[in-house]
Design goal:
131 residues; mainly alpha; two-stranded antiparallel sheet; 2 strands; 72% helix; globular
């Protein structure tokens, strides 16, 4: 349980850092601090609970692609978070224009960049904070 809480907190911190580092054309959030906290916790929960299950299910594909399918899985999860934030929680979050303008080349590039940056930041923070 302690590891789950730490994983959620690390992912939430990484998401907040990501919002301040990446340009608005890639990831855009318009809202108040409580919405940001809710969104960050949502990102943490997705990374802590859903991501490991999907990674396990896509393990054979990951072996065939030498791990590159992990980028696709992470980018897909980022887009799911954006969709859920917009449609379920009514939080104004867009990733490369998604979900308001649909999936475009900009959306795919932005989701990949956000996924890689999120992974790097989460790894760095995770090295500093141990279970």
């Amino acid at each position: 349980m302690k590891g789950l809480v730490i994983n959620i907190a690390v992912s939430a911190i990484a998401f907040v850092i990501l919002l301040s580092v990446l340009p608005n054309s890639m990831i855009n959030f318009k809202g108040e601090t409580p919405q940001l906290i809710l969104l960050a916790v949502g990102v943490g929960v997705v990374n802590a609970l859903i991501k490991p299950v999907i990674k396990m299910l896509t393990f054979p594909i990951s072996m065939l692609t030498l791990g590159l399918s992990g980028l696709v899985v992470n980018a897909g999860l980022v887009l799911v978070i954006a969709w859920a934030a917009q449609n379920v929680a009514k939080i104004d979050l867009t990733i490369g224009g998604f979900p308001t303008s649909g999936i475009t080349a900009d959306t795919i590039v932005a989701a990949a960049v956000v996924a890689v940056a999120m992974g790097v930041i989460t790894t760095i923070i995770g090295l500093a904070v141990h279970d």
